[in-house]
Amino acid sequence: MDPRKKHRKLKTANPAEILRSHQRDDDFIKHLREKVVDALQLLAKQKGLLPLIHSNIPYKLIYFFFTSGMGNQTLGEEYTGIVQANLDAHKVPTLFARMLAVILECFGERVLLRLLKRLELSVNSPDSELTPAAAMFLNSFISKMYTTIPILILVHKGLFYMFGRYYSLGKRAAGVDYAKVYGRRPTDTISWGLRLLGIVTLVQCALKMWRNSNSENDTDKYLKADEKHSKLECRLCLERMSTTTTPCGHLFCWSCLTDWLNSKPQCPLCREHVVPSRIVHVMNL
Length: 285
Hints:
With 285 residues, the chain is mainly alpha-helical. It has 2 domains: 15-225, no CATH class; 230-284, 2-Layer Sandwich (Herpes Virus-1), CATH 3.30.40. It has 11 helices and 6 strands. The chain has a 3-stranded antiparallel β-sheet. Strands 5-4-6 form a 3-stranded antiparallel β-sheet. Helix 6 runs antiparallel to helix 7 and helix 7 runs antiparallel to helix 9. The protein is elongated and about 85 Å long. The termini are far apart. This is RING-type E3 ubiquitin transferase.
Protein backbone atom coordinates (compact mmCIF):
# COMPACT_ATOMS: atom_id res chain seq x y z
CA MET A 1 0.00 0.00 0.00
CA ASP A 2 1.23 3.46 -0.82
CA PRO A 3 2.33 5.14 2.49
CA ARG A 4 0.92 8.42 1.27
CA LYS A 5 -2.54 6.85 0.98
CA LYS A 6 -2.17 5.23 4.39
CA HIS A 7 -1.65 8.59 6.11
CA ARG A 8 -4.01 10.56 3.89
CA LYS A 9 -6.05 13.03 5.85
CA LEU A 10 -9.71 12.11 6.31
CA LYS A 11 -12.29 14.48 4.87
CA THR A 12 -14.54 15.91 7.55
CA ALA A 13 -18.21 15.22 6.91
CA ASN A 14 -20.37 18.22 6.12
CA PRO A 15 -22.72 19.16 9.03
CA ALA A 16 -25.69 19.13 6.65
CA GLU A 17 -24.89 15.49 5.82
CA ILE A 18 -24.56 14.64 9.52
CA LEU A 19 -27.95 16.21 10.22
CA ARG A 20 -29.60 14.31 7.35
CA SER A 21 -27.99 11.09 8.58
CA HIS A 22 -29.37 11.51 12.10
CA GLN A 23 -32.79 12.50 10.78
CA ARG A 24 -32.92 9.34 8.67
CA ASP A 25 -31.83 7.21 11.66
CA ASP A 26 -34.49 8.86 13.84
CA ASP A 27 -37.16 8.15 11.21
CA PHE A 28 -36.16 4.47 11.10
CA ILE A 29 -36.12 4.21 14.92
CA LYS A 30 -39.60 5.78 15.03
CA HIS A 31 -40.83 3.30 12.42
CA LEU A 32 -39.24 0.41 14.36
CA ARG A 33 -40.89 1.57 17.60
CA GLU A 34 -44.31 1.79 15.96
CA LYS A 35 -44.03 -1.76 14.60
CA VAL A 36 -42.84 -3.22 17.91
CA VAL A 37 -45.48 -1.32 19.92
CA ASP A 38 -48.21 -2.67 17.66
CA ALA A 39 -46.87 -6.21 18.10
CA LEU A 40 -46.40 -6.03 21.88
CA GLN A 41 -49.31 -3.77 22.84
CA LEU A 42 -51.44 -6.59 24.27
CA LEU A 43 -48.57 -8.31 26.08
CA ALA A 44 -47.18 -5.05 27.50
CA LYS A 45 -50.59 -4.05 28.80
CA GLN A 46 -50.81 -7.26 30.75
CA LYS A 47 -47.23 -7.09 32.05
CA GLY A 48 -47.20 -3.37 32.89
CA LEU A 49 -44.51 -2.57 30.33
CA LEU A 50 -46.30 0.21 28.45
CA PRO A 51 -44.03 3.08 29.64
CA LEU A 52 -40.96 1.14 28.54
CA ILE A 53 -42.11 0.15 25.05
CA HIS A 54 -43.39 3.67 24.30
CA SER A 55 -39.95 5.16 25.04
CA ASN A 56 -37.50 5.63 22.16
CA ILE A 57 -34.47 4.57 24.21
CA PRO A 58 -34.83 0.72 23.92
CA TYR A 59 -35.18 0.98 20.16
CA LYS A 60 -32.20 3.32 19.86
CA LEU A 61 -30.06 0.87 21.81
CA ILE A 62 -31.20 -2.06 19.64
CA TYR A 63 -30.72 -0.11 16.41
CA PHE A 64 -27.24 1.18 17.25
CA PHE A 65 -26.16 -2.20 18.64
CA PHE A 66 -26.80 -3.86 15.29
CA THR A 67 -25.23 -0.99 13.33
CA SER A 68 -22.51 0.98 15.13
CA GLY A 69 -22.00 -1.72 17.74
CA MET A 70 -21.19 -4.30 15.07
CA GLY A 71 -18.96 -1.99 13.08
CA ASN A 72 -21.56 -1.21 10.41
CA GLN A 73 -22.87 2.07 9.08
CA THR A 74 -26.30 3.19 10.14
CA LEU A 75 -28.92 3.68 7.42
CA GLY A 76 -28.45 7.43 7.68
CA GLU A 77 -24.67 7.13 7.31
CA GLU A 78 -25.06 4.91 4.25
CA TYR A 79 -27.52 7.38 2.74
CA THR A 80 -25.15 10.34 3.10
CA GLY A 81 -21.85 8.50 2.50
CA ILE A 82 -20.30 9.23 5.88
CA VAL A 83 -18.74 7.02 8.56
CA GLN A 84 -17.94 7.45 12.22
CA ALA A 85 -14.27 8.35 12.62
CA ASN A 86 -11.68 9.64 15.03
CA LEU A 87 -10.46 12.50 12.85
CA ASP A 88 -7.55 13.41 15.15
CA ALA A 89 -6.14 9.87 15.13
CA HIS A 90 -7.15 9.23 11.45
CA LYS A 91 -8.82 5.92 12.25
CA VAL A 92 -12.13 4.23 12.93
CA PRO A 93 -13.26 4.65 16.57
CA THR A 94 -13.03 1.63 18.82
CA LEU A 95 -16.14 -0.39 19.66
CA PHE A 96 -15.98 1.01 23.21
CA ALA A 97 -15.94 4.61 21.93
CA ARG A 98 -18.87 4.01 19.56
CA MET A 99 -21.03 2.37 22.24
CA LEU A 100 -20.03 4.97 24.84
CA ALA A 101 -21.23 7.71 22.48
CA VAL A 102 -24.60 5.93 22.10
CA ILE A 103 -25.03 5.42 25.86
CA LEU A 104 -24.14 9.04 26.63
CA GLU A 105 -26.59 10.30 23.99
CA CYS A 106 -29.39 8.13 25.40
CA PHE A 107 -28.78 8.48 29.13
CA GLY A 108 -26.23 11.26 29.74
CA GLU A 109 -28.55 14.18 30.54
CA ARG A 110 -31.05 11.96 32.36
CA VAL A 111 -28.36 10.44 34.59
CA LEU A 112 -26.92 13.86 35.46
CA LEU A 113 -30.34 15.20 36.46
CA ARG A 114 -31.06 12.10 38.57
CA LEU A 115 -27.71 12.45 40.34
CA LEU A 116 -28.54 16.09 41.09
CA LYS A 117 -31.93 15.03 42.47
CA ARG A 118 -30.32 12.45 44.76
CA LEU A 119 -27.78 15.01 45.94
CA GLU A 120 -30.58 17.48 46.65
CA LEU A 121 -32.48 14.90 48.71
CA SER A 122 -29.31 14.01 50.62
CA VAL A 123 -28.49 17.65 51.37
CA ASN A 124 -31.99 18.40 52.68
CA SER A 125 -32.42 15.14 54.60
CA PRO A 126 -33.04 15.46 58.38
CA ASP A 127 -30.14 13.03 58.85
CA SER A 128 -27.71 15.30 57.01
CA GLU A 129 -24.78 16.54 59.10
CA LEU A 130 -24.01 19.50 56.85
CA THR A 131 -23.80 22.95 58.37
CA PRO A 132 -26.51 25.44 57.35
CA ALA A 133 -23.99 27.39 55.27
CA ALA A 134 -22.86 24.27 53.41
CA ALA A 135 -26.46 23.15 52.81
CA MET A 136 -27.37 26.59 51.47
CA PHE A 137 -24.34 26.60 49.14
CA LEU A 138 -25.10 23.12 47.80
CA ASN A 139 -28.77 23.92 47.26
CA SER A 140 -27.79 27.03 45.30
CA PHE A 141 -25.28 25.01 43.25
CA ILE A 142 -27.84 22.28 42.49
CA SER A 143 -30.45 24.83 41.45
CA LYS A 144 -27.98 26.45 39.03
CA MET A 145 -26.96 23.09 37.59
CA TYR A 146 -30.60 22.20 36.86
CA THR A 147 -30.78 25.21 34.53
CA THR A 148 -27.17 25.06 33.27
CA ILE A 149 -27.13 21.47 31.93
CA PRO A 150 -29.88 21.98 29.27
CA ILE A 151 -28.29 25.31 28.27
CA LEU A 152 -24.85 23.67 27.95
CA ILE A 153 -26.30 21.01 25.63
CA LEU A 154 -27.94 23.73 23.54
CA VAL A 155 -24.67 25.71 23.37
CA HIS A 156 -22.88 22.62 22.07
CA LYS A 157 -25.57 22.19 19.40
CA GLY A 158 -25.06 25.79 18.32
CA LEU A 159 -21.29 25.24 18.05
CA PHE A 160 -21.94 22.17 15.88
CA TYR A 161 -24.07 24.22 13.50
CA MET A 162 -21.28 26.79 13.22
CA PHE A 163 -18.17 24.59 13.02
CA GLY A 164 -19.44 21.14 12.02
CA ARG A 165 -17.50 19.07 14.59
CA TYR A 166 -19.03 16.57 17.05
CA TYR A 167 -22.80 16.25 16.66
CA SER A 168 -23.43 15.85 20.41
CA LEU A 169 -21.67 16.13 23.76
CA GLY A 170 -21.73 12.34 24.00
CA LYS A 171 -19.82 12.01 20.73
CA ARG A 172 -17.36 14.71 21.81
CA ALA A 173 -16.70 12.90 25.10
CA ALA A 174 -16.14 9.62 23.24
CA GLY A 175 -14.03 11.25 20.49
CA VAL A 176 -16.41 10.13 17.71
CA ASP A 177 -16.84 12.40 14.69
CA TYR A 178 -17.75 11.81 11.04
CA ALA A 179 -15.71 11.53 7.85
CA LYS A 180 -16.89 11.69 4.24
CA VAL A 181 -15.91 8.49 2.38
CA TYR A 182 -18.02 8.30 -0.78
CA GLY A 183 -20.69 10.10 -2.77
CA ARG A 184 -20.95 13.61 -4.07
CA ARG A 185 -19.81 16.21 -1.57
CA PRO A 186 -22.20 19.19 -1.58
CA THR A 187 -19.63 21.76 -0.49
CA ASP A 188 -16.32 22.05 1.34
CA THR A 189 -17.59 24.78 3.61
CA ILE A 190 -20.40 25.12 6.13
CA SER A 191 -23.44 26.82 4.65
CA TRP A 192 -24.40 30.24 5.91
CA GLY A 193 -27.84 28.87 6.72
CA LEU A 194 -26.35 26.51 9.31
CA ARG A 195 -24.01 29.22 10.61
CA LEU A 196 -27.00 31.53 11.05
CA LEU A 197 -28.86 28.74 12.87
CA GLY A 198 -25.84 28.33 15.17
CA ILE A 199 -25.72 32.06 15.92
CA VAL A 200 -29.46 32.13 16.70
CA THR A 201 -29.04 29.09 18.97
CA LEU A 202 -26.22 30.77 20.91
CA VAL A 203 -28.25 33.98 21.23
CA GLN A 204 -31.13 31.88 22.58
CA CYS A 205 -28.77 30.40 25.19
CA ALA A 206 -27.54 33.87 26.19
CA LEU A 207 -31.14 35.09 26.62
CA LYS A 208 -31.99 32.06 28.78
CA MET A 209 -28.96 32.70 30.99
CA TRP A 210 -29.89 36.39 31.29
CA ARG A 211 -33.47 35.50 32.18
CA ASN A 212 -32.32 33.01 34.84
CA SER A 213 -29.95 35.61 36.28
CA ASN A 214 -32.76 38.19 36.49
CA SER A 215 -35.02 35.64 38.17
CA GLU A 216 -32.38 35.01 40.84
CA ASN A 217 -31.91 38.75 41.39
CA ASP A 218 -35.67 39.27 41.76
CA THR A 219 -35.77 36.44 44.30
CA ASP A 220 -32.92 38.02 46.29
CA LYS A 221 -34.72 41.39 46.33
CA TYR A 222 -37.92 39.75 47.52
CA LEU A 223 -36.10 37.91 50.29
CA LYS A 224 -34.38 41.10 51.48
CA ALA A 225 -37.66 43.03 51.46
CA ASP A 226 -39.32 40.26 53.43
CA GLU A 227 -36.39 39.66 55.79
CA LYS A 228 -37.98 41.50 58.68
CA HIS A 229 -41.05 39.30 58.58
CA SER A 230 -39.17 36.08 57.93
CA LYS A 231 -37.23 36.47 61.16
CA LEU A 232 -40.48 35.87 63.02
CA GLU A 233 -41.41 32.81 60.97
CA CYS A 234 -40.44 29.26 61.87
CA ARG A 235 -37.46 28.27 59.74
CA LEU A 236 -38.73 24.71 59.39
CA CYS A 237 -42.33 25.14 58.23
CA LEU A 238 -42.10 28.84 57.16
CA GLU A 239 -45.77 29.24 58.16
CA ARG A 240 -46.22 29.56 61.92
CA MET A 241 -44.60 32.19 64.14
CA SER A 242 -41.44 31.23 66.02
CA THR A 243 -42.39 30.87 69.67
CA THR A 244 -39.81 28.41 70.97
CA THR A 245 -36.05 28.74 71.43
CA THR A 246 -33.26 26.21 71.80
CA PRO A 247 -30.45 26.65 74.36
CA CYS A 248 -28.23 27.85 71.48
CA GLY A 249 -30.68 30.68 70.76
CA HIS A 250 -32.41 29.61 67.51
CA LEU A 251 -36.15 30.17 67.16
CA PHE A 252 -38.79 27.78 65.77
CA CYS A 253 -42.46 27.04 66.29
CA TRP A 254 -43.23 24.61 69.12
CA SER A 255 -44.65 21.75 67.03
CA CYS A 256 -41.87 21.75 64.41
CA LEU A 257 -39.08 21.85 66.99
CA THR A 258 -40.54 19.10 69.18
CA ASP A 259 -41.13 16.85 66.16
CA TRP A 260 -37.54 17.44 65.02
CA LEU A 261 -36.02 16.73 68.44
CA ASN A 262 -38.04 13.54 68.81
CA SER A 263 -36.29 12.14 65.73
CA LYS A 264 -32.90 13.82 66.18
CA PRO A 265 -31.76 15.66 69.37
CA GLN A 266 -29.87 18.43 67.53
CA CYS A 267 -30.59 22.05 66.71
CA PRO A 268 -31.87 22.12 63.07
CA LEU A 269 -29.56 25.05 62.27
CA CYS A 270 -26.26 24.69 64.12
CA ARG A 271 -26.47 20.93 64.93
CA GLU A 272 -25.66 21.53 68.62
CA HIS A 273 -26.97 18.76 70.90
CA VAL A 274 -30.31 19.74 72.43
CA VAL A 275 -32.18 17.93 75.19
CA PRO A 276 -35.94 18.24 74.44
CA SER A 277 -36.67 19.21 78.04
CA ARG A 278 -34.42 22.30 77.72
CA ILE A 279 -36.32 24.09 74.97
CA VAL A 280 -38.14 27.24 76.14
CA HIS A 281 -41.51 28.57 74.99
CA VAL A 282 -41.11 32.36 74.62
CA MET A 283 -44.44 33.88 75.67
CA ASN A 284 -43.95 37.52 74.67
CA LEU A 285 -43.52 36.92 70.89
